[in-house]
Amino acid sequence: MIHISHMDFSYKKNHLFKDLSLKLSPGTIYGLxxxxxxxKTTLLKIISGLLxxxxxxxxxxxxxxxxxxxxxxxxxxxxxxxxTLPGQxxxxxxxxxxxxxxxxxxxxxxxxxxxxxxxxxxxxxTLSYGQKKKFLISFGIASGSRIFLLDEPTNGLDIPSKxxxxxxxxxxxxxxxxxxxSTHQVRDMExxxxxxxxxxxxxxxxxxxxxxxxxxLSVRKTAGEPESTGILYTEKTLNGYITVTESKNEPSxxxxxxxxxxxxxxRPDKITSLFNRRKSHETA
Length: 284
Description:
alpha/beta, Rossmann fold, 6-stranded mixed β-sheet, 3-stranded antiparallel β-sheet, globular
């Protein structure tokens, strides 16, 4: 449903993306990971048509985002990290904006407001930062749009609210919907995002399902310093070491997304080659 092919994008002399290609399919909740400044927000804006690529092609739900056609806009909802809301009551905002989304689900919207303890008669400007984010998440899910983009959605949420967020987003998935969550708070997204997309140095260095990752990489905890042979990445902890190695089809513990992210950034070429080799063996 989202297809990016050989895309270039720059901010003046800052060449952010060079020959970037990416395919994303419906029915999944993608985690978009990358360093600060890697271009996660920019990529979401390009997908939603708020920024335009210099070269290459971008299609979202069969539309060219840069054209901003009405049929496209009613099928996409983008929740940015920073936003401004008008001085309206929640019900007034809903009555004004929801007609732009033909598939808007009134019942679902009210259910989510109840989940987040947000009354319809509250003015948006009186809500806290976290409450405003909960309101926009509720509206975005209820919009019925098939493309739902969230940029750092857990910023401003306390621990109980993050648990609520994970539960609500997990229930919002459907076979015809793509949800993309851009985040640097990886641990907030564990047990929610799958597949994992990592961008580094202007390219996609990983776009893999958790099953594929766990079949290719193995994470181990050891009390003593591990032997260096075969280690792709190691990190010292209070209780010893965590290592990432190529999987030899042996049982492995749950994948730690933060360790995975650090390993991919440390050895992008090596880890990419491992996935490519495994795929070539599977198709041989």
